[in-house]
Structures are given as structure tokens and as C-alpha cells.
Amino acid sequence: MSNHSVQTVSTAGDKVKIGLAVLAAVAGVVGFYFLSNQSGAVRAGVLVAGLVIGIVLAWTSSQGRGFIDFTREAIRETRKVVWPSRKNALQITAIVFAFVLAMAIFLWGTDKLLEFVFYDLILGWKK
To answer: What are phi and psi of 11, to 5 degrees?
Structure first.
């Protein structure tokens, strides 16, 4: 776990940067669809430009830097995970499928038994 202190204070400048970043990303998407009569390369360029400008603006804010720090820490923690081997993963998956199949058969049998008890024995309704 991290020993970083939590900071929730944001300045007005950071809020403006985040707002501009969202506007730039939206402008890129809108431009992509607005320029439908242009070539695909132009449309893709407008989309990528809007998204890149939005990412750069967001990155310069304190929330953006916090997100980058969070991402780095998450990647570092993921590297510490001991992943199962392919054989173990397949065995565990097979056990889960077998359990699901057994539960499905059990629930189907319980449903049919209750159907027989209620409709045939208690209510006397024959199908």
C-alpha cells in the first residue's frame, strides 16, 4: 500500500484545465463525425488531435498527475501478483465448469421434484 497523503484540494485553474480537456476530446469526436465527407485520414487526424490535446491538458492538472501516479502504482502492484500457470488455470476453470454443471442439474432436479409435489400430489393437477 502507498503512504501518500490524500489531497482533495483543487484550484480553479485545474478545474478549467479539466473542462478544456473534456471540450477538446468532445471536439475531436464531433469533428470526426462532422467531417464525414472528408477522407478517413483527415477524420482520424482530427479525432486523434482532439484526444491528444485533451490528454495533455488533463495531464497538466493536479488530478491528471494524481491519475498518472495511481496508474504507475497499480502497474507496480500488478507485477507483484503471482499468476497461476496455464495448467493450474485450466484445472481451476474445469472445476468451475463442473460445479456449474452439477448445480444446474441439481436445480433442474429440484424444480422438477417441486413441480411434481405441488401440481400432482398437493393440487392434483395432472398435465
So the answer is: -85, 170
pLDDT, one tens digit per residue, over 65-124 is: 888 889 899 999 999 999 899 999 999 999 999 999 999 999 999 999 999 998 888 887
Q: pTM of the full predicted structure?
A: 0.48
Q: For residues 4 and 26, give the distance between their C-alpha atoms in angstroms, rounded to a whole number.
A: 33
DSSP of 28-53: HHHHHHHTTTS-HHHHHHHHHHHHHH
28-55 burial, b if ≥16 CB within 10 A, otherwise e? beebbeeeeeeeeeebebbbeebbebbe
Q: Where are the alpha helices (DSSP H) in the chain?
A: 12-34, 40-59, 62-79, 86-115
Contact 55, 43 (CB under 8 A): no
Q: Are 65 and 59 in contact (CB under 8 A)?
A: yes
